[in-house]
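Course assignment 3, question 2. Fill in each field.
Student: A.L.
Task: Predict the tertiary structure for the chain below.
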Amino acid sequence: MNEGPLPPAQADGIQRLGFEGLTLCHERLEAHFNEVRSRRAEGGNRIPVFALEHGLSAAELAVLKAEVCAAILQRNLSRDAWLPFVVYAAEVGYEYRGDEYWQTFEALAPGWIENGDRHYIRARFQDFKDRFHGAEPTGPWARHFSIICWPITHAVLPTDLQRQLARVLFEYRSALTPDLLADPDELGRRLAGRSWQASSRFQNFAQNTSLLGQVAVALLVGEDEESPYLSDSTLKRIVTDLSAEREAGRWLTDAKSSATRIRTRGFRTVARGSGKGSSAAQRRTLPISSDPDLFVRQREGGWTAYVELPDLSVLGERLPNVNEELGRLRARFQGVGGPIAGGRLLYPGQQFRLAEWPRSDSPLIQLENGSADVNALLADRCRLSPGPCWLFRIRESGFGTEVRGKFVRSGHSYVLLSDSPLSALPTWIVPAASSTAGVFAYGVATPTSIGPDDIAALEHLGIASVTEVGIRPAGFVPALWDGEGSAEWLAGEDPVIAIRSNRALTKCILTLDNTPSLVPWPVATDELFVRLRDLDVGSHELLVSLLPSDAAAPVAKAGFAVLIRSPHMRPATGTLREGLTILANPVAPTLPELWDGQAALHIIGPSPARANIEIALADRSNRELVVRRSSGALPIDPARWVQLFTSAFGRDDAMHRFYEEAESCHVAVTAHGVGTVTLRCERPFAPLRWAFGRDRNGPFVRLVDNTDGGRAVVRQFEFGRPVDAIPVILADRALLREPRGGLVIAEVGGARALMILPPLVRDLEDLRAEPPHVTPGPRSVAEVIRLIGLAHLWASASLPADPFASTRRLVVLRAITGHLTELVCGTRWGQAERIAAQRDRGLIASELTAAIGAQSYQLALAGDLQRRVGALTSRAPARLADSFAAALALHGRAAGVRGQDGRLAEFLLRLASQPSSLGTLASDDLRAKVELVLASPVLLRAARFLTLLTDGADRGDAQAANDEVSRWE
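Answer field:
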């Protein structure tokens, strides 16, 4: 329904058809919602009522809108006839597309800004909740947007979210079960865990998992069924709007068909796989869907262990904030070495070499600065199989996959890894070279006939042998099979297992998750096929006992692990198993992050193929505003992406002209013969943000406030004095102008908005800006931390489509970095830097070496760093940090360095080149490291020396060390 306010005469004409005013509208709605509430309460159900379920016809709704608009113009916010306002606000929420809610409200109801009251709307929705058991917003989003969360929640499923929910339901359809369809709360939690690829608006919507589940179940009802969760008219309205787009309609149709098939199987009261008799400890020995996969490769130094990441986004079904932290924070992976960039753990299929075997008494994966709950979940749900031995079957020359069941078959070849040396081995198990520290490798070539002594030797190692029973997958091809006793299928597939034996048999006992079944062995055949139906997502253990026809013969036994994985939501950016992929950091970048260069894109594809790159800006109706194209050779790493984006798109006049109007950006990468992948970046839905504009008087910013309406505290930092805050009094709806430009900050409660306001440039004189002056402060921990925080504010502020904003900000960040360096390292170092910057790059080392320090260890450190720079084949930040850590371990003991500390080396290099990147470091860790640097300034001098040498060698510019574009992931 897109009707706007009607002209008074036209509205009066409709009033005479059925309404006499606001009071009659209220009475009509009151009777309707009382009926809906009573119907929902039958049978003890406490299903909420939504204001969008008003049941009004198009004509009645047009009258209601006209009555509400007239009342607003008359400043008549009635406390008696209030239901029309609730319905009107919900209708605005239904059409709301993520821009300014109150501006949209004002556009449809003129006079709202002057005569309206946000708190009135919230109070009336709270009345609706109390009177009619109305829906109540929940989740972090509802706490941050405590007013507009009410009308948007009561809009049920706003139009811009419908396509996204249809896609989530389509991709999750194979994991639906009768139990999930009967439990909307659990279904909502599962779907919310899969929303990390969606827009920020949808992620906010998904935080109310109960609402998400109820809407999902309602959408999945059959064509001739009614949903208990939504009125029929409201449900049909949503389905009609959703089906208007062909692809979204097809997604919903397929998901509904899957749900209908599942319902015909009947509802089960006890989920398979959680049957009686199974203990948590017993089941945890089986692999789970979030356990990494192990494999080995034979390299020059011997057998090397690798891990492959599964789809860790499934953990979001257990803890809602998992995917948010996985997408934002760096991770430490035991044995891998350096940190893993934020967001990378959400891309399954990545393979990491284990330089060292992980310890079993420490978590395998942990997030830096992650919450205790998320890290505890990662520690519990991401493990390697238990030791002390790990078995790998050789699948092809030089490559082996793990046998999780730890058993061997005669005549096959394996690799055995052990955390301690093995002795008293049979002749067919021999030592082999291992290039993964912490484990010992052995080659295993099982004989064609395994005798009792061999069986005893294997049992001593914790390995079983299978000689009379063969178990393999049949039917559906499994997603993964280790060739022995473990296979994986996707949810919705019914695994078929083939059991083979050359013995004379009468019966077979199959025990699935501790539930036994007696199955007759088929006559005159040596193979039995078994279908395992309706297995839940998770691990299942199948034990096979073969009963021979000769009662005196021993019973043959074998086991098989069945793993059912949730369907992987294939992102539009592709996967690492495909030929073309976009890896983004952060994992779902916003439009400002892409524009500002804060989003690092890594485009992976076959080398040396070229990729065509198309970037389109679109408005809130998804209408393309401008499209630009470029190309580049694959692969494109983050540094090359920033250069390509800046040169091909960031300087384009049309892109600048339409950027402020755009609500989203589409990045499409196409490689001939490989395929196309896309990334969609949207403006974030923020409680508080600045909107940039320009008129004949120059640039300005306007504050968009979607908070509770409290008075915003506004500060400004000028480009010329970037660390000195100036209070600003900003009237409602006023434009903020400052000819000199700078950083503007607005804060309301816990919400904050930052933007760089460009200067007014009218002539060449305006281009000659004064150098930034950083007010000196004491040489103290507090002052260093304050400067880091200020640099972080400048670096994290949004950039408008104005080149002067980005260049002036870069000058400010360089000035803060230089001042901070001189504050810690001393005036002698600062003077040496300035002298070196004025000369050619060949003199940098000679000018600065003496300034590092005159003590022998300081001179040795400087010389070592010079040699390391010359030997570095890659100047990537991670490689630089490793080399710096090694140099500090050799020469930094006198400065307080204990051993090779990669985190300290990275901190020092960040402080020396990009202090703004330290703004999110945990306060205790930051304080401890700053204290060390102030006590031993040679550490920062050495880091600055290395950074200047590296950037100067690449670009001939010592000042380039301050370039904030050289990012740290």
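Instructor remarks: The chain has six domains: 8-153, 159-263, 281-381, 468-569, 581-682, 811-962. Residues 416 and 844 are 53 Å apart (CA to CA).
Grade: pending
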